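Me: I keep going back and forth on a fold encoding question. No explanation is needed for now; the record alone will do.

Assistant:
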Amino acid sequence: MNGKKRPLVYPVAALLLCAATFSGCVSNGDTRVSWEKDKETIIRSVHDIKVGQQEAENFSRELIATNEQRLLDLEGVNQQQQQQIDALLVQMKALRLASKKASVKHTRRLNKPATKIKPPARKLPVKAAPVASVPVVPVKSKEDVAAEALAEKNAYTAAYLALKSGRFDEASTAFNAQLDQYPQGEYADQAWYWLGETRFAQNDLDKAMHAFKYVADRYLNSAKHAAALLKLGQISEAMANTDKARSYYQRLIKVHPDSALAEQARLRMTEFNNVNPSAPVENR
């Protein structure tokens, strides 16, 4: 059986070898032709893919940076709002404490027995003078003093932030409330000055003048004293009262001669004198 099948093996193998050789030759030739035709297209496609990848990376970086900045802005707004909320909460706590103390004092006065005054003896010609009652001033503890100081500071901070944010009505109300609650407080002079700035921003010149004048006349050692005098001069000019403006500028130059604000006052005085040369020159 093996002798019959051997003659068929060699012709089939030879045929397959020729076909493979011919197919290889044709395939290699077609590949070279196809590569020459598609070379530029493939290179251009690879370049376009790389450019697209770079653009996608740049866009991703810009998007990440934008989102990070937005998050920072939101965190700043949230922090500012939280500070205002904390300030209001402390102020409310101080108000409740003051109200509670006032209620306790009133209750004590109502429950206190009235002092009986003995009638004068019939033999004495002169009536006995009634005993004058001495008011009892409550002594504040260190904790109460610290709480009030913190409440005043937070109230001032909340009002100042409202002014700087352009919420002038809110700032005006807050500064007035602070001055009503703490008229002799540590931040009273600052509150009066910034109340004047608030009124000036609202174009209420009369009330702005009143606030600045309060600082100029009552807080001579305030850090805002020179600024208040300068504002009084500027508002007087705006109200066409040149004589009053001169007096405020001269006062500023006299009290704060070495300050930068005094230099501004000197410039205004020089301009006045250039307009009206006959006017007296002072503190040049």
Notes: The chain is about 75% helix and 0% strand. Residues 98 and 171 are 23 Å apart (CA to CA). The radius of gyration is 45 Å.
